[in-house]
Amino acid sequence: MTERVCCPWHDETKTRLKNALTEDRLPHALLIAGYPGWGEVQLGEWLALTLLECTGQQNARELAHPDFRWIAPDGDVIKVEQIRELGEFTQGTAQIANAKVAIIEDADTMNVHAGNALLKTLEEPPGTTYLVLTSHRPGALAATVRSRCQRFDIVADAGQAHAWLEERSALRLMDDHGGGPLLALAAAESGERPMTEILAELTGGKRAEVFAELFGEAPGQMSARWARCLVRAAAGEIELPGLDSCETRRFFRFVDELWWFHREVTRSNSANTRLLLERLMTKWCSLTVQPSGRA
Q1: What is the CATH number of the domain that holds 73?
Q2: Burial of 42 (0-12, 13-18, 19+ CB in 10 A)
């Protein structure tokens, strides 16, 4: 998604932030938290643009503004050098806007040194600077950092999200992505199909086509979608072709295999994804065929 989207479930938190700003009690260090796919980064972006008095559909990531900085993980972590540069940015007064603003995206990825460096700024925040931390894993942030930020949680209103996704023909992908509406919308825009449809085709014999589709995805995301699908099937929420007569122990043996695949492709740098996916597909096909003898 390249455009900024308006998320109705953000309205309640936006109202709290607007009131705090109007009443001159908005804290200079904020932590915006939400479940994955509910838009904590997007809400932080909205707040930053509001503080900078920038209007319209501007993309804050690409905003060239002397009073704004956007810090995102460099690879998997936010490094101490990035936070030290932020500390230098916070010094002095704003040049154009009424305040300086910085977003720290996925703040929980700061390494220990970066977190310690940020504490120095949080302990004595300049009066005209706002630090907006975003995270969908706030518990992974250092307690010393959390305690110096005022937390604003996004309300995960499933009813609003369902209606919003239905208008955009993306509701059927919501369960595949852990209930995260923005993740479901991005998946729909990229042409992704529900895992239930893909597995039905695999069971129906379209192995080559399904392999090409699954191999084209990020393997960690694909296996997570597959696992969520199996959890829903085990809970009786959905039916998957071929599983109605599958033995329980064989089903959970495959679940173990799937999680092993997930760990291999997300944690190992030497995993042969193509070979592992072929193995997984073979085991799935044998799972959905009732054995004639003992498993």
Answers
A1: 3.40.50.300
A2: buried
